[in-house]
Amino acid sequence: MSARVLPERPLPGHAVCLDLRTAGAYDPDAVVRAALDAPQPGGERRFLVLDEADRLVSHQLLYERLSSYGPARVVCLAVGVRGERSVRRTLTLRPPAAGVLWVFDSTEEGVPAEAVLRPLVDVLSTPEVFDAVLRALGEVVHGVAVPAVRVLEHDLTDEARARAWRQAVEGLTGPEVPAGTASAEQVPPALALLLDEGLPRSLADHRWLPAQGRAGLRLAGCDEAVQDAVDGYHRVRGAAGLLTGAGRTVDLPGDIERVAGELERFRTAVADAFAAAGGSRLTVEHRGVLRDRGIELPEMPREISRAGIVPALRDHTHELIGKGLPLRSVAARLGALSARTAPVGSASRLARLDAICGPERLRRLGGRYPFTAGGPRPVAFAVTGLLALLAGVWPVLGWVLGPAVGVLAAGLAHLMLRRRPNRSPDGRIDGGGATGAAPRLFGGVLGGLVGAGLGQFLGLPPWAGAVALAVSLTAVFLLALRDWSRAVDDWWARADPEDAWRILREVQSLVVTTAVHDWLFAEVRHHCSAGAGAVARLLRGLADTADAHGRGPSHAKGPGYAYGPSADSAETAEGGPRRGSAGPPEPDGGTSSWTWEDWGDGGADDVWSDMDEEPPPPARAAAPPTGGSPYASDPFGAADPFGPAGAFGAADPFGPSGPVGAPGPYRSSAPSDRDPAVAGGGAAWPGPGDGPGPDPAPAWLERRYGDGGPLLVDTLVGDLVAGTLLILDRSWAGIERDPGAVVPAVHEERIAELLDDTRVRLERDVAASPPPRHDGLRDQDALAGLGALTDRSERPDAARLTGVAPDAVARLVLAEDDPARTVALCGPEHMRLLSHDPLAARQVRFVPEAMRRGAAGDDIWRGIAEDVVWTGAGRHAGILRLVPLRADVVHTVRAEEAGEP
Q1: Cβ pair 812, 94 in contact under 8 A
Q2: What is the average pLDDT across 192-217?
Q3: For the packed helices 327-341 and 309-322, what is the interaxial angle rounded to 10 degrees?
Q4: Beta strands 46-52; 876-884: pairing state
Q5: Closest of 747, 694, 757 to residue 720, by C-alpha
Q6: What is the phi/psi pair of residue 167, to 5°?
Q7: pLDDT at 445
Q8: How many Å apart are CA 538 and CA 516, to the nearest integer?
Q9: Pairing of strands 842-848, 876-884
Q10: Rounded distance, CA 91 to CA 85, Å?
Q11: Could you tell me where the DSSP H helices lie in 598-665?
Q12: What are the C-alpha distances in Å from 312 to residues 193, 317, 460, 514, 859?
């Protein structure tokens, strides 16, 4: 079977191609079985069969088998040799279900037969052209015709195609990026609850530490001890605490010591609970252990559930991909989410508990701080002396009253020292202190004596002395109360027993956070972490597979729509071992040596190093020999309004052609052993690698190469992203069921198929045709909001993909009907076998739909004929004219009694 003519991987919906010629040893029955097994959507069964014209009858059973599973439409491309003058066919190949195209002579000078048949098969396998040709064959005599064709091919240079493919794969995969961090603002609400350590609203009123539980009792005891200390502080700090016996019953040091003890016991109870239920998964036994230690867990809150995690992950992944992030960037963010939500167990909270209520903080809370009052001693000396001086100005009595005020101030200072709040009533706990009694005594005595002398000298009236004494005594008492209150407040602030309340609140908050996120949410967090990690690994594996697979062919015959001899026939073919495809010719007439296998080798000889330079002008092929036509005596001479059909020179109205000899996505191949050039003893076609020039094109095919349009890479990336989303759609159910059981190899195989399919379309029609629709999605709603990513039916016009304007195609199709524009696939000696009735011929004009899309295309195609067939795929446009044969040339065989077909 010939892998040198048929597409290795035809696009979905195209006719199934099979070759029944005897070029090589193969089993015809296996070929037919493989064709019948090929999927064809919509119940439509189309078969394009290559056969030898003299074996149509002997292959009768093979054609009947093609219709054995229901109605089938068959177009047979019968290849004849020069000496044949009639064709015999069976009833199976009659219209309307079948028809025959007889190619009398598939060779031209310098052009092998396979190079002629390859583009013809490509055109005929397009479903729209296939149906139009079959309808046209039904309108000609006997349903047998000779094709006369003129085709324009729009394609990319090998360098442009490779560059676009490389950039598309890089746009899909992206570079390696650091994991970063995940924040609650960047994820859906269902996942944000796992990141911000907040409390669900439904749990706001839950009592996590019941009063009758062990931890609750410790909490209540600590809270009561702090409250007792606060109450004692308020009794001590006022005048009653200094001047009356109200402070004698207050034991502030003991209360503070009890606060530290209760707080330490509460911390021990919480730490015991954290350690006892420290696993990363909450079990029924853990709930019992926590209940025994005084922590009561509620049921799972309604705001979150295990079932909603994977849908939230799916939405988050789709959102990231929808923002245009490549796979590795999405994988990095999901990896950060996985690390952030991974349950680590409540035992990991012990370090935080130590930071809140560790030994150092408890030691500071239970410390003994000295009681200091009276302020700076020089100030106390001066103030007391001044007040005593004021009391001593009463004549005569001042000698007693002045020093008495100093003694009163010193006595009040000594009273502060005796009733200091850091000393227990029984003296068990004493933090020490100083109140400055001595400076006040010395300052008061000295000031009183000075005041008495001053009063004796001034001789003030008694009422003035009395007023001065009252002011002095009032000031002494007020200053003493002020110093007492300030000193008590300062000591209380340094001891800070109320810090125990802050510690209690922090510990309770830690208990709630631990209970929610480490115990209640443990299963959900584990599921989220495992799911996010599984998706991250899957995306990273898909990216690695895309990088590895996208840099070279996935199979020996090359990528996508590639034609080449099979491994077992390449060495036996007349053309010798298989060679790589030839690229567009260089200006010097040689061929580019780049192949898909060369991509990714690296090194200094980078094929992309000169991509910024202007591409060289395409070389022209030599003018092929002229042929004949049944409609003009000299159709290919100077009288032809389009110039020589094979030359495509300056007289060609379709503009200069691209490189004629570059086979584009086709592989080199050896000709059939029934090719007249080989059967007649001539040497086999050497292939593009053996000769100095490129693989030539037939006279009826003009190739135009572009360097890629502005939307080519974006279109390819969009197709790959859409296919990746569909691959992910198949994985969510497995991630929901068991994230660890996801088999990356299955999805990597699917992305390899996606890359192959996308590269097939890139090589087949420059990605002008949309990817095949994937029915049976597991979650239609999940992709409903991603229509812009998954719906790839809207495609750019061909000019924006190839960089080649469709003007020449429009002029060809819009021109008036003229048989001279087409080249009949027959030799001059076959002219007498054709019908010379111009009205008997049928014509099919075909243009890819992508060529009329876009604003520019609307102007070009205005006024086009209604009979043009718009094809959904393909890079070929042109005219296919079906010329009928004379009635006596076609013989229908009603029964065949021969042996094996």
Answers
A1: no
A2: 85
A3: 150
A4: unpaired
A5: 757
A6: -65, -35
A7: 86
A8: 30
A9: antiparallel
A10: 20
A11: none
A12: 12, 8, 93, 23, 47
